[in-house]
Amino acid sequence: MTLRRLKFLLVLVFGGFFTTISTPVLAGEEGGETKLDPAEVIMDHIKDSHEWHFFTLKKSDGTEFHATIPLPVILYSSQRGLSIFLSSAFEKEGKEVEHDGYKLEKGKVMAVTEAGVPDETVKVYDLSLSKNVIQMILALTLLVVLMIGIANKYKKGQGVNTAPKGWQNAIEPVIAFVRDEVAKPNLGSKYKKYLPYLLTVFFFILINNIFGLVPGSANVTGNIAFTIVLGVISFFVILFSSNKHFWGHIFWYPGVPVIVRVLIMLPVELLGVFTKPFALIVRLFANMVAGHIIILSFITLIFIFGTMSKIAGWGFSPLSVLFAVFIYMIEILVAFIQAFIFTNLTAVFIGQASEGGHEEHH
After folding, report:
1. Distances, alpha carbon 288 to alpha carbons 86, 337, 347, in Å
2. Total structural domains in the chain?
3. pLDDT tens digits for 169-209?
4. What does the DSSP assignment read for 327-349?
5. Quick one: 197 and 246 in the same domain?
């Protein structure tokens, strides 16, 4: 029964996925107007956007219907002030148009003159609620509602005096795992101080990773800006957790000749302070965006073969879908692994920064 449900879920997922990607590609090919650009198709599905696009249908009259949800565009410039409107204002009759002195080109908002030419003198600050931002807010809302609901159950005694129920059964083992396998081994007696942060980071990344696997959703953790913010937050947590023993080993490494300390060890150790958060940032970003690119590449291969021959396109489809499903299943595992790795490395770096000297251990 479980296997049947899993198969049904995969069919549903990839059915929606094919709908979102294949319709615009085939529409362009049939009309002979555009040529399939795999890189453009793939990047269009993983990059951020000012609208939530689901699918495109070609009407009998040749025009296209785009099923989208326009998102709020919030722009500010010192010359023009604050502008707030929906992203649908940038499109009229299927064409990109200027609105309120701004124009959307290749996903970027730029100021334009009355003649429609980009105005380089106007500095635009884009504070829009893009697809990534909206999905991140939804993930954060789900995290808060879920955790507060579970916490209230524990306050009432459910899961303490009685057996846990519902989401408690799923969340409690994960919390225990992070506590016993991540926090305690790396932080020792100080684990309670950092456990709330580690759990927040773990579940926030995990929820966003899982959301990103739903067809039509945004790949938030595959956005470098998102991982940079998480990495910078962890960087400051690591710095504020450091002690004199940690900095003493950086600026005056004991047991090493003075010349080696100053010319080699000091630059290397100082660089190591910044490479730790950099490793957190790049590892999460690269792994999450790579999986999406691989899945999209397998799907796009169908249309690449289809442009050569319809028989080749249909013949390659089963193999392409098979590989895509296989990578998709791996991505589900990667969603958990990357949340764990980010949390575990953060705990390791905090532990290294806050550990005492040899005399304290004795």
Report:
1. 29, 11, 21
2. 2
3. 888 889 999 999 999 999 988 899 999 999 999 999 999 99
4. HHHHHHHHHHHHHHHHHHHHHHH
5. yes
Report the chain's mean pLDDT, rounded to a whole number: 81
CB-based contacts of 105: which residues, under 8 Å, 6+ apart? Answer: 96
Q: Residue 211 — left, alpha, or beta (φ > 0 → left; ψ -120 to 50 → alpha)?
A: alpha
Pair 246, 342 in one domain: yes
Are 288 and 212 in contact by the 8 Å Cβ rule? The answer is yes
Question: 235 — phi, psi (to 5°)?
Answer: -60, -45
Q: Are 202 and 178 in contact (CB under 8 A)?
A: yes
Which one-letter amino acid corresponds to residue 336?
A: F
- Gap between the terminal Cα atoms of the chain: 57
DSSP line for 207-262: HHHHHTTSTTS--GGG-HHHHHHHHHHHHHHHHHT--HHHHHHHHS-TTS-HHHII
Q: Are 118 and 267 found together in one domain?
A: no
What are the phi and psi torsion angles at 118 (to 5°)? -55, 130
Does residue 55 sit within a domain? no
**How does DSSP classify residue 180?**
I
Query: Is 263 found in the same domain as 296?
Result: yes
Which phi-psi region, left, alpha or beta, contains residue 185 (left: φ > 0; alpha: ψ -120 to 50)? alpha
| Whole-angstrom distance, CA of residue 183 vs CA of residue 204 | 17
Low-confidence ranges of the chain (pLDDT < 70): 1-36, 62, 93-94, 356-362
Identify the residue whose tokens are 């009407």.
59
